[in-house]
């Protein structure tokens, strides 16, 4: 869910709750429609979907509150805020069941959000690599020679391409 960087802190809580409700309503409508009894699927959907969507809204609002509070306390906006906010939110919502289930939910929530943050960081690094490669141009593409070396197809020095490299482009983009 994450905090919207454009919205100020109090509005991001409302936005998080609204997004949680929307996601919960969309997902639970599909789920409860398919799960409902054959003759009364729409009635089952209208009974169950808003309740499930409300729990998603509570999770989203509490998550954004804690995430914004951690960012304010730490004076940093980094993945640790997201991980801690996910764990604390899951733990607080499970606190009604007792301390042991709440601590288990804390670990599960933090682990899930750590996994999502890790995937986002890896994706961001990959996209940065692609942007840098496209900025350098087609002459900087790696040759598949490293692949051939591992499989025994070795080139002799006579077969090497000795043409000079392309002229550098000094245009500033």
From TrEMBL:
Entry protein name: Uncharacterized protein
Organism: Saponaria officinalis (Common soapwort)
Biased composition (Basic and acidic residues): 146-163
Localization in the cell: Mitochondrion inner membrane
GO CC, one annotated term: TIM23 mitochondrial import inner membrane translocase complex
GO biological process: protein import into mitochondrial matrix
Location of the region described as Disordered in the Swiss-Prot/TrEMBL record: 132-173
Topology in the lipid bilayer: Multi-pass membrane protein
GO molecular function: protein transmembrane transporter activity
Family under the similarity heading: Belongs to the Tim17/Tim22/Tim23 family.
Major site of localization recorded for this protein: mitochondrion
Lipid biosynthesis keyword on record: no
Keywords linked to the UniProt accession: Membrane, Mitochondrion, Mitochondrion inner membrane, Protein transport, Translocation, Transmembrane, Transmembrane helix, Transport
């Amino acid at each position: 869910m994450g905090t919207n960087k454009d919205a100020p802190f109090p509005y991001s809580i409302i936005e998080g709750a609204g997004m949680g409700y929307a996601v919960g309503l969309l997902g639970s409508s599909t789920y409860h429609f398919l799960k409902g009894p054959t003759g009364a699927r729409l009635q089952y959907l209208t009974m169950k979907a808003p309740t499930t969507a409300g729990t998603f809204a509570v999770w989203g609002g509490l998550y954004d509150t804690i995430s914004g509070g951690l960012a304010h306390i730490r004076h940093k906006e980094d993945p640790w805020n997201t991980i801690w906010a996910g764990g604390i939110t899951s733990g607080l919502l499970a606190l009604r069941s007792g301390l042991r289930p709440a601590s288990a939910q804390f670990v599960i929530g933090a682990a899930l959000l750590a996994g999502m943050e890790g995937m986002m960081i890896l994706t961001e690094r990959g996209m940065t690599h692609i942007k840098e490669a496209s900025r350098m141009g087609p002459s900087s593409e790696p040759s598949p020679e490293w692949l051939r070396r591992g499989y025994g197809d070795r080139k002799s020095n006579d077969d090497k391409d000795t043409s000079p490299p392309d002229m550098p482009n000094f245009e500033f983009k």
